[in-house]
Specification:
- The chain is mainly beta.
- It has a single domain, classed as Beta Barrel (Maltoporin, Chain A).
- It is built from ten helices and 35 strands.
């Protein structure tokens, strides 16, 4: 056994001990109930149940997918079971119209929607955990460690709104909203452990589920590590020479989630941490810099739900998110942020055909960035500030006739140092036939300037207090088909972004300064489909074509391919055998994003295989619900993938995928 795996044996033992302790601590009756509940395999469900999905993200209340006022995709529990899941990032790459991106240091792992890579960070996508925002507030909604380390074994399903969502969710809900929904604590909770390893990767995961009357608890944990990746990183410096360095790219981190429900009270906590490589090929400095970057995030939420009457329900939530980022060398920022958020939501249904959402939200955020300098400077703070924000929102959907539903909503918000702003949305949903659905939607969204953009005073970067929020206006026109064993949709979108906040580096003699610049227009067509050929065989596919241009009619102003496509084929049988293939294809991009120094961001196919066998079908051990042996092969085609380093200048790239990784494992569920 390699040293790479040996050094984690203590962690495995600790996790196994914890799982066994909790699963045998006086809850025998509940344990039997869990076994009976979990024993129902997904392929035994009716096809209509697998495709007739209920969602909550678009309206903050339960509704059919076809009724939701948004262009939604759902990663179901069946999708997760069939195709496996090594990280949240891997799962999201399967979602229609989502693609990967990277930033040189502060967001080394990110997702973009519909080609919107205008920002070098994740600030145009809002991530939610069970409907609660997990924002980073200093520089741009950084999300790397959540994508890489969040325990996917706690996830029940994921809802993705492709398009704006600011009316209900505020800043960052600009080009997408991604809602990670964990396993319902009050049902389908069990205890289990999952250990996998191979020459290049190691991971251990575990779940503990407890149900005792009105109290239910789900605790999930995960640790994953890939063997350090040795490569040569090159950069073009100010003197026009190419500097080359042998670097080691780590890829490791833990994640944990705890959810507690007791009657109307729900509590959540999550922790994520990730470590990897960064490289700064900044044209302003003679010697490029690279090193190790670490992110960590604590998230907690306390929520209370109360039915005032049959037609009126209130939800109150208090949410905290705290993040940290540390780098090992120049430019040396050490960052820490905190966000406190209070929100009251009223769900009112005065008529069976009319639903109204009214809410108020207030938050307080603070952030700091400091560098450790040689004496006599010592600790230097480039940012150390705070601000408040308040907002009020309303949304109503009214089925004024049987086949038509009208949606209207608005949010008014006030960010400290910025004038009051308003964003609206309207929409019409038409159901001419039981199996056919049309949506016409108009939405506006905003992204408020982050603390870093307004207040930073780094010698190589300045903020501006004169910034105004970014705005986007989006029109979606789509048709959706739903049959017993198939659902699919086609959607066209037009999005116009304006007042975009970027670093002005046009003058090489001046310090770069954040400013509002121009506009970018995105247009595109999306196709997606899910098809159960027979209950055991499942096919899913999607496609995106997008084009973009700025106010000067310059095309392809972002490092995103115009075309991308995805497809998966899965077989899951009653005999315990499951096999799946999924391919993510991202096409070519404009040649101006190629590099003459490092490897260029060429088109790629990221093909993965996942196969498992539940040997408990043979063993028939009553103490176990599942005993799976599985094989996971990532990047079957063994392609090294490099992405555009988008924070600085075109022509700089960063390593993202090292090549093929094969791992095998065992999953035990009690």
């Amino acid at each position: 056994m390699s040293c790479f795996i040996k050094k984690h044996l203590f962690f495995i033992g600790l996790l196994l001990s914890s799982v066994m302790f909790f699963s045998h601590s006086g809850h025998a009756e509940e344990k039997n109930q869990v076994q009976e509940s979990n024993a129902e395999d997904l392929f035994d469900m009716e096809l209509d149940e697998l495709l007739n999905i209920t969602v909550t993200t678009a309206s903050k209340s339960k509704e059919k997918l076809s009724d939701a006022p948004g262009v939604l995709s759902v990663v179901t529990r069946d999708d997760l079971e069939r195709f496996g899941a090594t990280s949240l990032k891997d799962v999201l790459l399967r979602v229609p119209s989502l693609m990967i991106g990277a930033n040189y240091m502060t967001d080394r792992s990110m997702i973009t929607s519909r080609g919107d890579h205008v920002l070098s960070k994740s600030g145009h996508i809002l991530y939610l955990l069970n409907g609660r925002p997990i924002r980073e507030v200093l520089e741009g909604g950084l999300i790397s460690e959540v994508l890489e380390s969040f325990p996917v074994n706690s996830i029940d399903h994921i809802e993705v709104i492709r398009g704006p969502g600011s009316v209900l969710y505020g800043t960052n809900a600009f080009s997408a909203v991604i809602n990670i929904i964990t396993i319902e604590n009050s049902e389908n909770v069990g205890s289990g452990v999952d250990v996998s390893g191979g020459r290049d990767a190691f991971s251990v995961k575990g779940n503990v589920g407890i149900k005792d009357g009105d109290l239910s608890i789900l605790a999930s944990m995960r640790y994953a590590e890939k063997r350090p990746w040795h490569l040569q990183w090159k950069a073009l410096a100010l003197d026009e020479n190419v500097y080359s360095q042998d670097v080691i790219v780590p890829d490791k981190g833990p994640g944990a989630y705890v959810g507690i429900n007791y009657k109307n009270l729900n509590l959540m906590y999550s922790f994520t941490k990730w470590e990897t490589f960064y490289g700064v090929a900044d044209f302003r400095h003679l010697f490029p810099s690279c090193g190790i970057v670490n992110w960590s995030r604590h998230f907690a939420n306390a929520g209370w739900e109360q039915a005032i009457s049959e037609k009126w329900r209130i939800d109150f939530n208090f949410t905290y998110t705290g993040t940290e980022m540390h780098v090992s060398s120049w430019p040396g920022p050490n960052r820490k942020t905190n966000e406190l958020l209070w929100e009251l939501t009223n769900s009112i249904s005065p008529l069976k055909t009319l639903n109204i959402i009214l809410g108020a939200v207030a938050n307080y955020s603070d952030g700091s960035e400091h560098r450790i300098m040689p004496p006599p400077e010592g600790t230097v703070y480039d940012v150390d500030t705070n601000r408040y924000c308040v907002g009020f929102y309303a949304q109503a959907d009214w089925r004024f006739i049987e086949k038509m539903k009208l949606i209207a909503g608005i949010q008014a918000n006030k960010v400290e140092f910025i004038d009051v702003d308003v964003v609206p949305r309207v929409g019409l949903i038409v159901d001419p036939l039981e199996f056919l659905n049309f949506k016409l939607l108009y939405s506006q969204a905003f992204r408020a300037p982050f603390l870093h953009e307004m207040f930073v005073t780094h010698p190589q970067m300045h903020g501006s207090r004169n910034l105004v929020p970014e705005k986007v206006n989006t029109v979606d026109i789509g048709a959706n088909l739903k049959l017993k064993n198939m659902q699919g949709g086609i959607n066209g979108f037009y999005s116009k972004q304006k007042s975009i906040i970027i670093q002005d580096r046009s003058d090489p003699t001046a310090v770069p300064t954040y400013n509002n610049f121009g506009e970018v227009i995105f247009m595109g067509l999306e196709l997606d489909a899910k098809y159960y050929i027979i209950p055991e065989v499942y096919l899913t596919a999607s496609m995106l074509y997008q084009s973009n241009k700025d106010q000067n009619d310059i095309k392809n102003v972002v490092p995103s391919p115009n075309f991308s496509a995805k497809g998966g084929l899965s077989y899951m049988a009653d005999n315990g055998i499951s096999m799946s293939l999924f391919n993510v294809y991202q096409g070519d991009m404009d040649k101006k994003y190629y590099s003459s120094v490092t490897k260029s961001p060429k088109p790629f196919s990221l093909l993965n295989f996942y196969g498992s066998y539940n040997i408990n079908k043979i063993l028939k051990c009553q103490q176990l619900n599942r005993f799976d042996l599985y094989l996971n092969v990532e990047n079957i085609l063994d392609k090294e993938i490099w992405l555009t380093d988008w924070n600085l200048q075109p022509g700089k790239t960063l390593p993202d995928e090292r090549g093929r990784i094969i791992s095998g494992g065992v999953h035990i569920q009690f």
